[in-house]
Amino acid sequence: MTDTPKVKKNVLLYNLLFLIVCGGIFLFLWFAPNETTPRLPHDDNHEKFHKIASKKEAEKFCGACHNDDGVAPLPDGHPPKYRCLFCHKRDQ
In degrees rounded to 5, what are phi and psi of residue 38? Predict the structure, then answer.
């Protein structure tokens, strides 16, 4: 059984389409901005949260200080407060 010219043309088209999509993804990632979100600080107030194994466990304590009446209120337009360590990463 031999390949017909139409089948070869379709394979070539799919390969080109695959390369274009991969190239687009590569360019998107290459020109993505650097990470600008500050990491969880290594100071006396935050050091205990670096030692908690689970991020979700550590995040339960963030709202005590980071609220409207706390030591460090969050700026207007800040994303939801329940996933702090999703953006503010801990150093490994």
Answer: -65, 145
